[in-house]
Amino acid sequence: MEFELLILGTSSALPAHGRFPSCYALQLEDRSYLFDCGEGAQIRMSDFGVSPQRIHQIFISHLHGDHFFGLPGVITSQALLGRTAPLSIFGPPELEKLMRPLVTQKDTDLPFELRFESIDPLGDKRLIFEDDRVEIGCFPLQHRVPTMGFWVKEKAVALNILPEAIQKYGLSVEQIKSIKKGEDLTLADGSWIANQKLTLPPFRTRTFVYCTDTRIQWELAELFHQPDLLLHETTFTEEFAQRANETGHATAAQAAELAKRMQAGKLITGHYSSRFRDLQPVLEEALSIYPDTWLGEEGGRYRVLRTRVGEPPAFERTLSP
Ligand SMILES: [Zn+2]
Ligand SMILES: [Zn+2]
Known about the structure:
Mean pLDDT: 94
Distance between the termini: 25 Å
Number of strands: 17
Strand order of the largest sheet: 6-5-4-3-2-1-16-17
Shape: globular
Structural class: alpha/beta
Largest sheet: 8 strands, mixed
Number of helices: 10
Strand content: 15-25%
Radius of gyration: 22 Å
Helix content: 10-25%
Bound molecules: zinc ion
């Protein structure tokens, strides 16, 4: 299964230099989980070929406009496109009060159920959503208003049985089902075969951590160990460290140092200040501390490939032409 982060917006505060405000789509096959939804999100979705119908859930980190002003358009366009599946939006408690009047005159105006799931951004790290593919949770960040980051962990999928095992032991459908779930095999004569002898090693479960607007929080290195993708805001470079601290943001060097402490598979940068037309200084600063850094670019697709336990993680990216 594909595990791909598609970047739709990388700008902080103002749209600038052709960059749009924050919006990220984590794509697992036919589902997109949207993280933040800055102004112009639906324009970026159209630019980069994300069908709004694919949006499974939306997660809003905090109530600064550059992270949620795209919501009314994304919600109402779904109605025009004939969505009937319910849509859940996870975000700070005030989000529903702000959004609902914009998208509905009466609750019945949308052809699908719009659910707002109120999340306290200041609570501890916890699980807030799960389906058959992923678990998604939040954790508190330190910004000028209550803000949360999000983590995503892929769920384990059924094990692959070795074809020779099916033949050798004459496995029944029921036995195959239980072995795929990880159970051992007991034969009619009472002998016992360990699951590992019957299956290929399981696939690694892949992870994504999203640290949106925040002052650097070193303690996150204790919460997250070796995430595959760490998207951390890099609004400024060290030259503007004081400004970063005053405005509740991080520098590229700080994000890179945190990625190093977490041993992230890849650090992806983002949420750039409009003072950077050219992002090379941001990238170079991060790379000097953490070589496994990728510059977050709009239209860029950052993938964690499917590998098995025991194999090293593998990554791939495709940038927008
Ligand atoms: Zn922001
Ligand atoms: Zn903010």
